[in-house]
């Protein structure tokens, strides 16, 4: 168990280092997302140790390393890990080629969604205003639930 | 047993992490202090990784020196010696000029100019972003590198420090789309905002048409933005275009700094007109006349009133 944690940490750091290797600009776009691949691998084969939180932390480190929007890659890594974990039983025993194809598919979704989130984050004057709406929805839900539950029961009677 | 566990993740956990990510993103967008601290703390790790990766490269570089031809080394040494003598000669003139300027300044408003403190550092890598307008340098906040510090090379302004961690700092180049600085247009004394475009082209929009600026003119920092000290060369005008708005022109320029082959850069750690000094200087010049010699001003006022 302890060695497994250690190897996960070590491979993740190695993958992060591979991502950060300075390459010429034209080569940079062809550099694979090593860290994402490592996260996918560990969620596939060591799901007990590498869960969503691990994926989130790995993504956060990538955000910090690339000076990007903090939390963007963290979000995408978590979603990818969630997808992998839910498809795990089929994916874990699938042949290597179909695994690779699925990973490529994940990456396409990843890029599309991260582009979309980046655009949304840049366009919005402040996401906080929208976030406060989500929070007020959270607070309002019990009230609405309680009231409507009453109404529904009264109507039944 | 572990083989047959589903390990299907809980939805609650996913939602929690998603919400945390969104909160983090919005706080980062707003620019909250503790998110900055988190960024700086974790950045120390990643900058450390970048530095460790850069180490073999510098080792290869220094290994290569062993095999350099001796005569080449001597010619290089001679060239550098000549350059050094030349620079020292010019420096003598500069020192006397500086004394003269300081004397004049002290007569004018009682403040002598400071030569900025600079820190020589090496570019050690760049983050894997598609728009490569960021790079990492080997000095961090332990060497007094602060976010916002100007970065220059031998020719002119390179950019600004974006983030400074314990092991290094990230610099944003002035050609980045997110970078903007205030410049003086050639000899005209008129200022304009110079914006990066992501390419080797800097654009100053909405410059009044009558401005006598032409291709080849040098743009220097104005110091108005309080980010850069006054008088550093920034860019050279390459073209003048007519703006969409009538009566205005658009000045296209390219940076004088050698951005394509950056190796060593200088961080101006104590700019002479730094933001923490400039406001105090301003307030003193504003308040001093009123405090020190109230009688002449009041007499003047009464004289004007009558």
Record keyword descriptors for this entry.
heterodimer, A: 157 residues, 8 helices, extended, B: 306 residues, alpha+beta, Thrombin, subunit H, six-stranded antiparallel β-barrel, 12 strands
How many individual helices of chain B?
5
Supply the CATH class of the domain at 180-256 in chain B: Mainly Beta
* Strand composition percent of chain B: 25-35%
How widely separated are the two ends of chain B?
101 Å
CATH topology of the domain at 180-256 in chain B: Thrombin, subunit H
Structural class call of chain B reads alpha+beta
Q: Helix content range of the residues of chain A, please?
A: over 70%
Biggest sheet statistics of chain B: 6 strands, antiparallel, barrel
Write a structural description.
The complex is a heterodimer of chains A (about 160) and B (about 300). With about 160 residues, chain A is an all-alpha fold. Chain A has 8 helices and no strands. Chain A starts with a helix and ends with a helix. The mean pLDDT of chain A is about 85. Chain A folds into 2 domains: about 1-125; about 125-155. Helix content of chain B is about 40%, strand content about 25%. A 6-stranded antiparallel barrel of chain B has the order 1-2-5-4-3-12. Chain B has a 6-stranded antiparallel beta barrel with strand order 6-7-8-11-10-9. The longest helix of chain B has about 40 residues, at about 70-110. The model of chain B is unreliable at about 275-305 (pLDDT under 50). Chains A and B meet through helix 1, helix 4, helix 5 and helix 8 of A and helix 1 and helix 2 of B.
Give the arrangement of secondary structure elements:
The complex is a heterodimer of chains A (157) and B (306).
Chain A (H helix, E strand, L loop, with lengths): L1 H19 L4 H4 L5 H12 L6 H15 L5 H15 L1 H4 L4 H28 L3 H30 L1
Helix pairs in contact in A: 1-3, 3-4, 3-5, 4-5, 5-7
Chain B lengths: L10 H20 L2 H34 L3 H39 L8 E9 L8 E4 L12 E3 L4 E8 L4 E5 L6 E6 L5 E6 L5 E7 L9 E4 L11 E10 L5 E8 L8 E7 L7 H15 L1 H12 L1
Antiparallel strand pairs in B: 1-2, 1-12, 2-5, 3-4, 3-12, 4-5, 6-7, 6-9, 7-8, 8-11, 9-10, 10-11
């Amino acid at each position: 168990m302890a060695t497994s944690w250690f190897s996960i940490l070590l491979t993740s750091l190695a993958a992060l280092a591979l991502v950060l290797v300075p390459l010429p600009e034209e080569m940079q776009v062809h550099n694979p997302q090593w860290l994402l691949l490592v996260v996918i691998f560990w969620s596939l084969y060591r799901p007990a140790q590498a869960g969503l939180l691990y994926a989130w932390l790995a993504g956060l480190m990538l955000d910090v390393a690339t000076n990007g929007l903090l939390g963007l890659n963290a979000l995408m890594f978590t979603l990818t890990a969630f997808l992998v974990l839910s498809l795990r039983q089929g994916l874990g025993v699938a042949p290597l080629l179909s695994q690779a194809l699925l990973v490529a598919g994940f990456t396409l979704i990843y890029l599309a969604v991260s582009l979309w989130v980046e655009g949304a984050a840049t366009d919005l004057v402040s996401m906080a205003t929208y976030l406060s709406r989500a929070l007020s929805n959270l607070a309002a839900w019990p009230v609405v639930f309680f009231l409507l539950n009453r109404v529904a029961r009264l109507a039944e009677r | 047993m572990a083989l047959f566990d589903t390990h299907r993740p809980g939805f609650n956990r996913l939602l929690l992490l998603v919400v945390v990510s969104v909160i983090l993103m919005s706080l980062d967008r707003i620019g909250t202090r503790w998110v900055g601290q988190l960024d700086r703390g974790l950045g120390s790790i990643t900058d450390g990784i970048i530095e460790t990766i850069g180490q073999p490269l510098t080792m290869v570089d220094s290994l290569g020196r062993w095999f350099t031809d001796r005569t080449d080394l001597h010619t290089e040494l001679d060239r550098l010696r000549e350059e050094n003598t030349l620079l020292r000669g010019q420096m003598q003139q500069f020192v006397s000029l500086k004394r003269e300027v300081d004397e004049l300044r002290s007569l004018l408003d009682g403040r002598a100019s400071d030569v900025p403190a600079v820190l020589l550092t090496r570019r050690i890598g760049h983050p894997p972003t598609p728009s490569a307008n960021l790079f990492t340098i080997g000095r961090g906040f332990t060497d007094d590198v602060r976010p916002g510090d100007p970065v220059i090379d031998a020719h002119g302004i390179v950019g600004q420090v974006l983030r400074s961690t314990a092991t290094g700092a990230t610099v944003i180049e002035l050609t980045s789309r997110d970078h903007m600085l205030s410049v003086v247009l050639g000899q005209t004394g008129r200022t304009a905002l110079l914006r990066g475009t992501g390419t080797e082209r800097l654009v100053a929009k909405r410059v009044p048409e009558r401005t006598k600026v032409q291709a080849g003119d040098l743009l220097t920092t104005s110091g108005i933005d309080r980010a850069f000290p006054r008088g550093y060369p920034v860019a050279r005008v390459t073209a003048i275009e007519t703006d969409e708005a009538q009566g205005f022109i658009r000045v296209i320029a390219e940076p004088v700094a050698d951005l394509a082959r950056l190796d060593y850069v200088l961080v101006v750690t104590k700019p002479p007109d730094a933001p923490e000094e400039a406001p105090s200087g301003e307030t003193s010049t504003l308040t001093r006349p009123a405090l020190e010699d109230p009688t002449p001003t009041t007499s003047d006022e009464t004289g004007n009133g009558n």
